[in-house]
Amino acid sequence: MAWVCVVIAGFLEVLWAYCMKVSEGFTKLTPSVLTIVFMIASFALLSYAMKSLPLGAAYTVWTGIGAIGSFLVGIVFLGEPASAMRMLAAVLIISGLILMKISAS
């Protein structure tokens, strides 16, 4: 259950990062409020998961999901470039996440 919470928290991190981007520096009310709501929910789930998971594994997976998810959202929804170097970096992050999860089991 703790790993499920970390994964959900990671997806919420992607949502708050996206909402922060579209809030235009917290000048738009709805995305600004959503940013804060998703942040609180993400931190709360991560905190709950850390009661039973190692700090390094939980935090690394959480930030990794957020990084890769935000990377993909940027490409798909915001028109950011998908260069070979950026794709390689994403593959390396995913590889690290898998290794961290395996090592924590």
TrEMBL record:
Compartments, as annotated in UniProt: Cell membrane
Instruction: Give any GO molecular function from the UniProt entry.
Output: transmembrane transporter activity
> What is this entry's stated membrane topology?
Multi-pass membrane protein
Q: Which SUPFAM superfamilies match?
A: Multidrug resistance efflux transporter EmrE
Coiled-coil ranges from the UniProt annotation: none
Q: Where are the transmembrane segments?
A: 33-50, 57-78, 84-104
**Example GO BP:** xenobiotic detoxification by transmembrane export across the plasma membrane
Keyword annotations for this protein, in alphabetical order, are: Cell membrane, Membrane, Transmembrane, Transmembrane helix, Transport
Origin superkingdom? Bacteria
InterPro entries from the entry? Answer: EmrE-like, Small_drug/metabolite_transptr, Small_multidrug_res
Any one GO cellular component localisation term in the record: plasma membrane
Family according to the record: Belongs to the drug/metabolite transporter (DMT) superfamily. Small multidrug resistance (SMR) (TC 2.A.7.1) family. Gdx/SugE subfamily.
Query: What is the protein's given name?
Result: Guanidinium exporter
Organism, by scientific name, is Acinetobacter lanii
